[in-house]
Each structure stands twice: as structure tokens, then as C-alpha cells.
UniProtKB/TrEMBL annotation:
Residues 21-130 form the HD domain. Coiled coil: none annotated. This is HD domain-containing protein. It comes from Candidatus Faecivivens stercoripullorum. It holds the Pfam family HD. SUPFAM superfamilies: HD-domain/PDEase-like (SSF109604). The lineage of its organism: Bacteria, Bacillati, Bacillota, Clostridia, Eubacteriales. InterPro entries: HD/PDEase_dom, HD_domain. Transmembrane segments: none annotated.
Length: 168
């Protein structure tokens, strides 16, 4: 098995008993890969982005244990050490581990989004969160306007939420 498949299974084990979190990271990963491929991301960055999408919310469990909540700031602090340990154990390269941990540490920070992988991860997470969270039409419209910049992310958004796209 390749490392990304092993990581997927490791994350499923990590989130065992919580199908909502497992489904969430699998959906974010699918959207991230689709957007990345449509945007022409190179294979190396696609590989790193996939690892980041699989692990982006790895900080939820330690945040719940330590703080009793899993707000974004806590996830960004607690997630990278857990991800680093998991990725190292699976034999990921140091460069990949460092970038994945950086992306986890910033995936709830929406200012100064620099880098295609960062942009795509945020957009993919927003697509899933807007749907799973039952966001209002106004929240979806604001997210579309403020958070989506890639052509692929916008195309997926407009197909997922056509009622919002038609208002533009």
C-alpha cells in the first residue's frame, strides 16, 4: 500500500467511533484533490495537499481532551504534533511532514492565504463545512464572495449550492 492509503486507514483508526469526523476528512480530501487537479497542481504538491486534507482536523481529539472544545485555534495548536508523530511513523519525508503540519496549524486562519495548497485546503474545508453545518443562504453567499478564489472551487461551489450561484 502507498503512504496515502496507509495514512487514510490510520486516520480512520484514529477517529474510530466517530463517523462524522471520518466522513468529513474524506470529503475534504476528495474536494481538495479535485480542485487541485482542476487547477493543475503538480504531483508533489498534490501528494502533500492530500496528506494535509486527510489530517487537517487531527487536532480535534486532543483539543476536546485538553480544553473541552475543539475551536479552530485549539485545533491549529494541538494538531501538528499529533500529525507529525503519525506521518513520521508512516515514513513520510520531512519536507512533506513540515508542510502538512504548517497547513494544519493555519487551516482555520483565513487571512494571508498564500500558496495554492493552502488556498485549496481552505476552499475544500469550506465546501464541506457549509454543507455539513447547514449554513444559511447568507453565510454561503458571504463565504463564496470572501473565501473562494480558484476557478475549480467556485465551479464546485456553484454546483453544490446553485441557489447561491444564481444570485451572483
Amino acid at each position: 500500500m502507498d503512504k496515502l492509503t496507509l495514512l487514510t486507514m490510520k486516520m480512520i483508526d484514529y477517529e474510530s467511533g466517530c463517523p462524522a469526523r471520518i466522513n468529513h476528512f474524506l470529503k475534504v480530501t476528495a474536494y481538495a484533490r479535485t480542485i487541485a487537479e482542476m487547477e493543475g497542481l503538480d504531483e508533489n504538491r498534490l501528494y502533500t495537499l492530500t496528506a494535509a486534507a486527510l489530517t487537517h482536523d487531527i487536532g480535534i481529539k486532543p483539543s476536546l481532551e485538553k480544553y473541552g472544545n475543539c475551536n479552530g485555534e485549539h485545533q491549529q495548536v494541538e494538531g501538528p504534533p499529533v500529525a507529525e508523530k503519525m506521518l513520521t511513523a508512516l515514513g513520510f519525508e520531512r519536507e512533506v511532514i513540515d508542510r502538512v503540519c504548517w497547513l494544519i496549524a493555519h487551516h482555520h486562519t483565513y487571512t494571508d492565504i498564500i500558496g495554492a495548497d493552502y488556498r485549496i485546503l481552505v476552499e475544500a474545508d469550506f465546501l464541506v463545512n457549509l454543507d455539513e453545518g447547514g449554513a444559511s443562504a447568507d453565510a454561503k453567499s458571504q463565504a463564496r464572495e470572501k473565501m473562494f478564489q480558484t476557478r475549480a472551487g467556485l465551479a464546485i461551489f456553484d454546483r453544490l449550492f446553485p441557489e447561491i450561484a444564481h444570485c451572483k
